[in-house]
Every structure is written in C-alpha cells, then in structure tokens.
Amino acid sequence: MLSPRRRRLSGNWETLFDAAALSAQIDDLNFEVNTPGFWDDMERAQATMKKKGALERKLGQYTDCEERLSEIELLIEMADEANDDELADEAIEAFGRLTEDMEAIRIRTLLTEEYDTNNAILSIHP
Prior knowledge:
Structural class: mainly alpha
Order of helices and strands: HHHH
Largest sheet: none
Number of strands: 0
Shape: flat
Radius of gyration: 20 Å
C-alpha cells in the first residue's frame, strides 16, 4: 500500500540527503580532527567542528525519516493483517506528519547555503 508513496518520498529525500556522501564527509572530518596539530589553528578547528556538527545533524534527520517510514510501513502491515481501522488511521496520521516534516526539511535545505548563517545588509532604494 505504501510502496509507491515510499518510492516518491525516497526520491524526494534522496535529493535532499546523499547519505553516503554525508557519511564520507563526516569520516573525512573525523580523520582531520584526529590529526596531530588540528587544534593549533583554533579558528580553523572551530569552523571544521561546526561543519561536522551540521553534517551530523543532516544525516540524523535522514536516519530519523528512514526509521519513521519503516515504522509506518510496519503499522500498515499490522493494520492490514488485523483488519484494524484504528491502526490504519494511526499510520495515515503518522505518514502525514512525516510528509510535513520532510517538507519543512526540504525548505530549510533550499534556504541553507554556505553564507546563510551570516548577517545580511538590505538596502531599499526608491
């Protein structure tokens, strides 16, 4: 029942999250953090740790979405086997929440670029 939706959602979040690339970037940063002299340049170290934290949060969001979708699929199977309308409704509600959360993540991703954490100066000319 959820397979076509899962494929559509998976396609959507695979464009938002490249889990393999995120993991590789985190591994690279972990290697860098563990190299001797990493903390000698404090500004560079702080920037690296900030980037690592952002990547870990993004990968965590992906993992959370995957786990939630797997739970929803299990709920649907259980509802189908037991012919339980309440359980089916619960799965539908959970799917709706997941879809909303993924849309919020998508919008944040679209609005997040390298310099988005910096302040902006806006000038209005008549």
